[in-house]
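This week, think about what follows.
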Amino acid sequence: MIRKKGYYRIFFILLLCLCFRVVAGTNLIRNGGFEEDYMGSVAMWSYDAFLETEDAVRFYINEADSHSGNRSLAIANILPNDSRAIQWVGVKPDTFYRLSCWIKIVEADADKTGANITVLGLKNTSRDLRDTGSHWEHVVVYGKTGPDQEELPVVVRLGFYGQLTTGIAYYDDIAIEETAEVPGEHVIDFSTGNYLQKTELTKKPGLYAVAVIVTAAIILLSGIIAFLFFKTDAPAKAIRFLKSRFFLKRYGGEKRRYIRKRRELDVAITRRIAGGYTKTVNLRTRDISLGGAFVKTDDLSLFRINGTVVIEIEYKNTVVLKCRAEVVRSEVVKNRFNRIVKKGFGIRFIDPSSENLKRLGSVLNV
C-alpha cells in the first residue's frame, strides 16, 4: 500500500508539471539548444547563406560556450554575408506566437544588420545585435499567423537581405511558443511580413480561462485513470506489452526492412502552402528503397521536417510510384576534407499500394 501511494505522488507531480507547461506554452522548436546530432550533422536544422563557399561562411557547433546545456550554434561570416539556420515548424492559423533566442556576437559590422531571429522571407526581424562582448543577450519577436498558415520557417541569422555583414555569432535556447499576451506594437503579420495595426492585436477572449478548465478536466480524468491503473495488474500487463514481439515489430524494434539502392530517378514532390494552394518541386533521388528515398537538393528550406507531402517517382517517363510520404530528416554530410558530399531530405513512403511497390521493385531489381 505504501508503494502504491508513492506511485500516486510521483504521478500527480509529473502531471501537474505537464499541465503547467501546457498552460504556459509549449516550445515548438526541436533541438533548440543544438544538443542533438543526427548522421554527423545537427538534428532538425538546415543551413543556408547568400555566399555558401567555405571561404565565405562556416557553420559549426561550439562546445566551449553556451547559454545553457553543453553546446551552442556558431555562424561565422568570414566574408560579408547573410547566413542562417532554418527549421520548419507546424503552427495554428490565425494565432499569436512568440519567437525568442539567446545570442552572443562579436565584431559584426556596425552599419549592417547583425544577429537576429525571424521568419524566412519576411522583411522584419527581432532586435539585431552586433557586439555583445562576452555576454549573452535575449531577443524576442512577436507575430501572428495568417488565416491559412500552417507552417513557419523559423531562422536565426547573421545579416539580412541586402545587409551582408561579417562577424561571429552564437545562438542557443531557441523557442517559438503560442501566446495570448503581445505588446502593443511591432507585432509581425507572419503571412505578409508587415507590422499589425493596433486594431488587429485583439486576442481571443477567455483563452486562459479555457486553458484552466481543460487542464482541470485533464487532471481529474488522469487521476481516475491512475487509480484504476495502480489498483489492478495493469502495470505488469503494460510492461509485458512493451516487451512483446508485436510492439517491437510495429514501433521500431527491428532493423531496417528494405535495402537501399543507389539510383537517380526523377521525383516530383508536392506540398501544401498558405492559402490552400500546393507547390510542386522536381528533384532527383540519390538512393531509394521500397520504404523511402533520399532526394538531393541544395535548398534545405523546401520542406518542414515531419511534414506530409505527395511524392511521384518516374522511370523512363513512366510513373512507378505515387503516394503520400513524410519528410523525416534534412541532412548535410561532409567528407574528411570538410567538403559537402550529400545534401537533401530523407523521405518515408506512407502506405504505398502493392501495385506501386511491385513497379518500383522491378525498377530496383528487388
